[in-house]
Sequence to fold (433 residues):
Amino acid sequence: MKTNIDPYKDFVDLGHRPKQNDLVCLFKVHPAKGMSMENAMGRIASESSNGTWAELTTLKEHIRKIRARAFSIKGSYVKVAYPIELFEKGSVPQLMSSVAGNIFGMKAVASLRLEDISLPKAYLSSFRGPGFGLDGVYEKIFKMKKRRPILVHVPKPKVGMTVKEHADAARKAWLGGVDLLKDDENLTNQDFNPFDARMKLMFKYRDYAENETGERKSYLANITAETKEMIRRARLVKELGGEYVMVDILTAGWAAAQTIRDECEDLGLAIHAHRAFHAAFTRNADHGMSMLLVAKLARLIGVDQIHIGTVVGKLSSPRTEVLDIDDEIVNRDILDHARVLKEKWEAIKPVVPVSSGGLHPGLVPYVMKLLGPEIAIQAGGGIDGHPNGVGAGAAAMRDAVSAAMKHESLAEYARHSPALKAALEYWGGKRPI
Ligand code: CAP
Ligand code: MG
Fold:
């Protein structure tokens, strides 16, 4: 029996007000040629909830009741409210299949970008959030009284070094002043550098560096793999005395990230989220999904650290985007503003913002002024490219952090730091591309 309900118009209601438990999505929409905004909105709300192109004989009132409603248009920005019943709690894959699924390919839109999702408490509370979070990382892992940026080194070349070469670079960087050593995103378990052998030597050298310096040192072991293997690798890291794992959360996938979050709850390990692949769908300002939302979902699942950009480094990360992500992952009460929806994070802990990609000592003050001292600053080439080698590179980065903490200029501080002086002479304030 036909219902005589228009399959698309039924999903637009400009007088609708979202209910307390609704999820609200903010989309940037450019309708296809010849398609009105209202018609495009109806199609987006329909396909991302419980509609399709045809008038359905199977549609009943209880089903219609939980349809999405596009309820606001402001220029290219459209808001859609989704009743919570549409979603499986505690599942980011299901959320993504709904509101970030088929709709990007609809002929009704020339382009479509999912900017943000406002999550009600009833949905938010079905996730754990970070186990450590920002305070846990500072207090439990680093036991730092006065918080300064956590300094991270990513040995370069990214891949190709043997276990011994990699661990030697790590040891020099730790001794030079780096807190955390991080595998690169594409270094996992290759023949030239097998995972298990790397772990054994890295933790041995880590312990040595801790003894030598009297400082806490830690290691971000890249466990990215097929999910069962990731779990095995996380267990090995724990067994060898690690505090963290690193996961390429987007190439591994949302489900894998959730699985690892659960495993790390049992193991008591923190999670560093690398965002490799994000720019494939976040970089186009008119199409795809925002990096802000990637970071928000990562906080929801419960990573403890995530990459957010540098503004001045080698990878594209616009200033407003970096600042908005920083706000979203660090604060508890996010206010509605351009392209960002309000959120109350309730009991979900803040995440450590990670600034990385093309950084060297000369850029440290900019990053610290932008994001403050409670961040992780990473450098690969900015340490291994130092003219006097890895140890000097690490010392120069550490001294740049110390200078910025004391609000002293780098040039001034370099008078007592030959390593920093050499770095400044070599790179100055260069912004790599
Ligand atoms: C940095 C890095 C990081 C990127 C990630 C790299 O190395 O290790 O993976 O910074 O970027 O391989 O590029 P360099 P983002 O210090 O040598 O640039 O944080 O933007 O995701
Ligand atoms: Mg890298």
